[in-house]
Write a structure and sequence with these properties.
Strand content: 25-35%
Order of helices and strands: EHEHEHEHEHEEEEEHEE
CATH class: Alpha Beta
Shape: globular
Radius of gyration: 19 Å
Helix content: 10-25%
Distance between the termini: 63 Å
CATH architecture: 3-Layer(aba) Sandwich
Oligomer: single chain
Number of helices: 6
Number of strands: 12
Length: 236
């Protein structure tokens, strides 16, 4: 069996990065971000990137690191959120943004992994989302045609992997990561734990190892809270 395990995040990305490439980056808010791989993309200095991700991290964290260095030319996302740098770069024209409804984004990625070039959805019909896209009628209802998304590289984060690359995700980190694993020409996954072959319950595997090319033990597992909400203390 081919060795998929690499010693460091930098080694796991060696030879894969180039200017103008398209990268899928997992995560939902600050959950399931490839925290150890993103800094290595930054350190490589590659530029003019198209990045497909639900959002672009938050101040000082996640894909924000690549926005700060102006390495991203285009984002394909569904949520700008609390990221002020993302907002500023888009409004100033520094960054191209293809804003996509969240469910549509997930389905476009899934379609890319499944080899389905296009599909129809009601989401966005009659709005700016549908501008320039074919609209057809099925059973009396209008649907807009959306196209698949694929990438030169997918960087994702999982909880556990075995040496074959079979993956398990934990709770909210099982967001865009499994679909992105299938839609990248090369998929690199950082994991919190690498376990021996045969130790994962086959029924509990979320992503089969056939989709995974390289594995590395994550070096950053901060699990930040993006927006802390607390209850005021009750009067005694």
């Amino acid at each position: 069996m081919k060795n998929k395990i690499y010693d460091s995040p930098a080694a796991a990305l060696d030879g894969l990065l180039f200017d103008g490439m398209t990268i899928m980056s997992g995560g939902f808010g600050l959950s399931g971000n490839p925290e150890s791989l993103i800094p290595e993309v930054r350190a490589s200095g590659v530029r003019d990137l198209t990045v497909i991700s639900n959002n672009a991290g938050a101040d000082g964290f996640g894909l924000w690191m690549l926005l700060e260095t102006r390495q991203i030319a285009k984002m394909i996302s569904s949520y700008v959120g609390e990221n002020k740098l993302f907002e500023q770069q888009y409004l100033s024209g520094e960054l191209t943004l293809e804003l996509t409804p969240q469910g549509t984004l997930a389905e476009r990625i899934r379609a890319g992994g499944a080899g389905i070039p296009a599909f129809y959805t009601k989401t966005g019909v009659g709005t700016v989302v549908a501008e320039g896209k074919p609209v057809e009628t099925f059973e009396g209802e209008d649907y807009v045609r959306e196209t698949w998304l694929r990438a030169d590289l997918s960087i994702i984060k999982a909880w556990r992997a075995d040496p074959a690359g079979n993956l398990m995700f934990r709770k909210t980190a099982r967001n865009f990561n499994p679909n992105m694993a299938t839609a990248g020409r090369v998929t690199v996954v950082e994991v919190e734990e690498i376990v021996p072959a045969g130790s994962l319950d086959p029924d509990g595997i979320h992503t089969p190892g056939i989709y995974v090319d390289r594995i590395v033990r994550s070096t950053i597992n901060e699990k930040r809270i993006e927006k802390l909400t607390v209850r005021e203390a009750e009067a005694m």
